[in-house]
Design goal:
Length: about 160
């Protein structure tokens, strides 16, 4: 591990990023179980894939922190969102992804301001992936045109 002076604000971005990514893991894992219980195996499969993607992001953040000589610390996980139907789950996911992308955009801008190209590129890479993911969620939500998929309450 390298031991260098790291801007405290950069550490804050990394810590919040880890918290949000692990919160997303928890949320998608919960949603996969809900979708399975509702008899929506394709949705459950997609949520499981999202879980794995977010776990990979969390792992990358942990690796980045370790490379910087910092012990990984997710300070607060958000409660997993539950809802009465698939469309509402996807709306919650869109909100979480918007928060994650805003954080990565802020972090990348901050890194640019302080001349930290390496960490800036790290956040920009995560930002690109999360923007793509947010677009996939929006597309999935828009595709739910069958009334029983969007309106039916499952519990």
């Amino acid at each position: 591990m390298k031991h260098m002076r790291i801007h405290p604000r950069l550490l804050g971005y990394l810590g919040r990023a880890l918290s949000l990514e692990l919160s997303a893991v928890q949320q998608y894992m919960t949603q996969a179980a809900l979708a399975e219980a509702w008899g929506l195996p394709e949705a459950a499969r997609r949520f499981r894939e999202e879980t794995v993607e977010e776990m990979r992001h969390a792992e990358r953040i942990i690796q980045r922190m370790l490379t910087l000589g910092v012990a990984p610390n997710a300070s607060q996980l958000r409660p997993a969102g539950v809802a009465r139907n698939l469309a509402d789950l996807l709306r919650q996911d869109a909100a979480l992804e918007a928060e994650i992308t805003a954080l990565y955009q802020d972090a990348a801008i901050f890194c640019e301001r302080i001349g930290d190209a390496g960490n800036g590129a790290f956040f920009e890479g995560l930002l690109r992936e999360e923007l793509e993911h947010a677009q996939q969620i929006d597309t999935w939500l828009a595709s739910l045109t069958v009334p029983h998929q969007t309106d039916r309450a499952y519990f």
